[in-house]
Write a structure and sequence with these properties.
TIM Barrel; single chain; five-stranded parallel sheet; 19 helices; 2 domains; alpha/beta
């Protein structure tokens, strides 16, 4: 093929990042999200995919229309909606993290599998209504390391059997909608103590261990017919002592293609992540990943440089031209497997159906763990408590889990709790300025009992800072002073299990894997013995039993 045709063909291998918002000034992450001018130019030049983040579900629908028009040909439109479309796009269903179903599976495996399939169907149907055709889920990592800073509650469990059963069910539900799925992060990111967004993790396990644990869920998803597999930025000496998995032919071709028999699309994890970007240039990283066996290059640090480098590598013979044809064929097969999308210009379906709303609330209710609810009822208490509602959130405010009207802020108010907010980069009125992660400075909190609410889970780019905060010491301080009214943990089950073990039976305590407002509402109403929400009562799902 001539130079122009080659460039167009290579461009189809790229998946670039865009905001879900319509205008450039609304971009939340302009470092990674291309401007509209850049997007229009790249899509016109043949770029074959876009990953989106931010905005409302309605905005996303409009955005996908525009991107498709700019491309002038079918393209892949995807998002990291591991916890429902509402995790990234307001107005759709924001579901509990997968780990919630992993914990439920230990008590009620059949119900957990049923809910996991409904979870996948909900993700697929809502993605399709918004214009997406590819869901970058499920996470197939087995979270066998409680100190994992980035997987944590994103995983469906802590053992390969649980993860395989639940991700398989999710994939069946997703496949029923016609939307493409993605098993990630191959060959397994669950037993790492470092975040590949920041540095390259080392996984020192033997091939035998990898086969018995990390690889098992991927085998399950391949048998279920998952459309794509995403690579992990990990160094695994037992497989390849030189190259990270994303850049390793031993991992992507020998292990994934030959040994496991995967015939679908292999997509890299984002190449802008520091595990790769800090070591290789944008062009060289794309060439190395493609030569190793990746079909799609996700979020190269520089799209034009990646296209240039790939064209040079193919033209020079460094990478055989057959690799390009194979990848384009697999991409075409995937796109052709997607049913005709909704005619969004003439049909504006509701993003979230009543059944999907009921699923959201059922998942929340089944995942709550509450001990010793308060006997104080906010609706009838004649003498309100003069206390502190201390909220620690592991993101920078404002954040999606804690809008101004969040239940975590509003529901304790009728009891007389005044809210104090804290986050890692903000002023912490509860700690010593010289040691922001130090023990609670009780004298700065005023008087009265303290309701402590912790929003802590594994999150990218934070290197486990929040998980490592000394809340054990803080709780012991409050107990010694007889000031701990109650404890709530949203997110990490490991933080919950450590801290709840410190509490006497008289202290109200509760845990929710989900951090979103729906979870806050359901948890606090039960912990504080308040009236159930009208939504729960109307749907008849205030309490669930098998």
């Amino acid at each position: 093929m001539n130079a122009d045709d080659l460039r167009q063909a290579v461009a189809r291998l790229l998946v670039v990042r865009a905001s879900g918002h319509a205008t450039d000034r609304e971009r939340r992450y302009p470092r990674w999200e291309l401007s509209n001018h850049e997007l229009e130019q790249l899509l016109g030049a043949g770029v074959g995919g876009v990953i989106l983040l931010g905005g409302t579900a309605t905005e996303l629908r409009q955005r996908c229309r525009r991107l498709q028009r700019w491309a002038g040909q079918p393209i892949l439109l995807c998002a990291d909606v591991e916890e429902g479309v509402g995790q990234r796009f307001e107005g759709a269903s924001w579901l509990v993290p997968p780990m919630a179903l992993g914990r439920l599976y230990q008590r009620s495996p059949r119900k957990a599998v049923q809910l996991a399939e409904n979870y996948g169907r909900c993700c697929g149907n809502q993605a399709k209504r918004c214009g997406l055709n590819w869901v970058l889920a499920p996470v197939c990592d087995v979270n066998s390391n409680p100190k994992n800073p980035v997987i944590n509650v994103r995983a469906w469990g802590e053992d390969p059997h649980t993860v395989g059963e639940l991700t398989g069910a999710f994939q069946r539900g997703l496949a029923a909608t016609g939307v493409l799925g993605c098993a990630k992060h191959f060959p397994g990111h669950g037993d790492t103590a470092t975040d590949s967004h920041l540095e390259l993790p080392l996984l020192p396990h033997s091939r035998e261990r990898l086969k018995s644990l990390e690889l098992q869920p991927f085998r399950t998803l391949i048998l279920e017919g998952v459309s794509s597999v995403m690579t992990a930025h990990l160094l695994i000496p037992a497989l390849d002592a030189e190259w990270p998995a994303t850049l390793s032919a031993e991992v992507l071709t020998t292990l994934l293609r030959v040994d496991l028999g995967f015939k679908g699309l292999v997509v890299t994890d984002a190449l802008v992540m520091e595990a790769i970007a800090a070591r290789y240039g944008a062009g060289e990283a794309a060439v190395l990943a493609f030569a190793a066996g990746a079909d799609l290059i996700l979020m190269p640090a520089d799209a034009v440089a990646a296209i240039d480098a790939l064209c040079d590598a193919l033209h020079s013979g460094r990478v055989p031209m057959a690799r390009l044809h194979d990848s384009l064929d697999r991409r075409e097969v995937a796109l052709n497997s997607i049913p005709q999308s909704l005619d969004l210009d003439n049909n504006e379906p509701t993003i979230e159906t009543r059944e999907e709303r009921a699923l959201t609330l059922e998942l929340v209710s089944r995942s709550l763990e509450i001990s010793n609810p308060s006997t104080t009822n906010g609706a009838t208490q004649p003498n309100p408590i003069d206390g502190i509602n201390l909220i620690r959130v592991d993101g920078v405010l404002p954040c999606p889990v804690l809008p101004a009207d969040a239940p975590a802020i509003l529901l304790p108010k009728p009891l007389g709790f005044q809210t104090v907010l804290s986050h890692p980069l903000g002023v912490s009125p509860w700690s010593d300025a010289a040691d922001p992660l130090g023990p609670l400075a009780i004298d700065r909190l005023g008087d009265g009992p303290v309701l402590l609410q912790l929003f802590i889970r594994g999150n990218p780019f934070q290197a486990n800072r929040s998980v490592g905060e000394p809340w054990t010491d803080a709780i012991q301080q409050l107990l010694d002073l007889n000031r701990l009214f109650g404890l709530v943990v949203y997110g990490s089950p490991y933080v919950w299990e450590t801290l709840s073990a410190l509490l006497p039976r008289s202290i109200p305590a509760a845990y929710s894997p989900g951090q979103m407002p729906d979870a806050q509402q359901a948890l606090l109403q039960r912990l504080l013995n308040q009236n159930p929400s009208p939504a729960l009562s109307t749907l008849g799902i205030n309490e669930f039993t098998d």
